[in-house]
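SAMPLE LOG
Freezer: B-3
Tube label: C17
Construct: single chain, 643 aa
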Amino acid sequence: MIRHRVTYPERRLAPKVLAAIHPSPAKRIRFAYRSLLRLTPTLAPRGRRLLLAALLAAPAVPLPLAAAENAPETPAAPASAPPIERRVTRQVAPGIQHQQVVREAPPHPLVVNVLRADLRQPGWRLQVWPGKDVLITPDVTKGREAVGKLALRRGALAAINGDYFGNGDPLGLQITDGELLSEPYPNRCAFGLTRDGRTLWGPVRLEATVSVGGRSFPVKGINRARGANELIVYTPRYGSNTGANAAGVEVAVEWPSGPVRAGVAVTGTVSEIRPGRASTPIPPEGFVLSGHGAAANFLRAVNTADAVSLRINLIGEGGQSWNEVWQAVGGGPRLIKNGEVCLGGNPEQFRPDVLNGRNPRSAIALTRDGKLLLVAVDGRQPLLSGGVTLAELAEWLRAEGAVEAMNLDGGGSTTFALRNVVVNSPSQGTQRLVANAVLIFTEEPSPAEEGELALLPPEGAVAADGRIAITAGSPVRFRAARRQPDGTWQELPEDAVTWALEGQIGRLTQDGTLLGMRAGPGAVSFSTGQHLARAEVITVAGPPARVTAALEPAANGSGTVRARVVDAYGNAVPEATLTLAYTTGEGPQTAEGTTDARGEVRLPLPLAALAAETPVTVSAGTAPPFSLKIPGTAAASTAAKNR
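STRUCTURE (predicted):
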């Protein structure tokens, strides 16, 4: 069953938060509350709270949204229209729910996808995994991979993009199955998960040393580009070679006691010393020490067959040990700490556009009842979802019960995959290649479906050039079905199906309902994890909703009216009949024309013959008529030239 819940999270926010997000209601609430204190001095506190609750129920102003370039024109909605929030919830595995949140607040809507995984429920596991299985590859991708492809290749139930990245490797902490792949970024937040299900949050510090022949030297980084006077450790997880220049010394270490892990001394033996030589191959069973400056001098004293010991500690806030963390991903900034929003200042040194912009967002959070949240907020798509600021994201997560939360890489990287399809709408229209992802696996695979499965088109659907035609603004429902022995089709259980849309042509909710918005081709698909069905669709413009026009005067006593017709979503309406109405000395006159593929038409207007101060209107269908202003000088000028 589809479970819808209409909520207004703004009602739960404090007045200061309302002042930041919805200034006008917040001012009204503060004024009203102060008035209550003055006018009801004898009213009991409970009575005041009831009155204040009634005030909080007032409609909220929709969140502001920056318009995207080249987006269709979107008519403004009435300011009094409150945002309507709908939720569709699916149980995708034991202890794991997928929830799609749709807030309809034109012209600033919002779409959020949330995976809720119960840490107390056995049968699933989380893993942080690098794209292409290593951090750097020699091809143009530099080791990056699309989240959907990575999840499919690894057999994950769900996945969301992870940390920020530069050349291709993650900027911050990454631990995969206990192995340290990338050191933490200074002062920035990270998320960690131990094997027994404990979560850790906050900035992490690396303390590492290499000891050879009774001498030691501090290690500054793991699997990243070497800087001046630094000693860096490169493991096979980095790639085939170090990529370092010839300005330093590199030492290959083989026959290690195990992978590079925090809290465990990793020992090995020097197999090769390479002074002044670039890009040392990384032993499949071993690692490379790469030094420059003082670190290079330390490595020059190393001899072949020397014993090497590498010791690493990861230290969190207040000296908390992260050595037992089994999976970890970096990101930032931290959004919620101990149940409170913690975005004050900028201790993690993020750029203003990251901190304050309205963007697509990805986040990971923990609720007070022990559920881990993977959250993807679509953005930069005015018709579908405008995105959120970090402050809004933090407040939304707190309203969802989060007591800890961290922002992940967002913008064009925000991608949410489930059951082998991408269920959100990446802002660039295609998936961005990313450095790593947070994956969710289930121990038991989905049972294989029996019988033929198919995606059934909406009833009465019309085909156009091999695609199913969808009219913008008219919702239609697709169905996922299984063929029965008698040849009929039976819809699949709702929890067994995940829906996806390609092409940014509208909004597809997780009950299979598509609301076309932007004219153009796309595809609707559903997945059960074992089976995928897909149908090509095309959104066509809806009925005329708005007409605009401009006058182009001519020198022969006439002019041309250039008009354009669009639907409710700003799509050009072709083949619409447009009527130009005006009055001359001979009485009311009309002229008609049909719009072209761009929704435009040009109609002649006899300026010299127009009656004084005559109204000129342009209309199409049920769209409100457009009144064209004719400057008096235009008619007088053409009339004079015509004499």
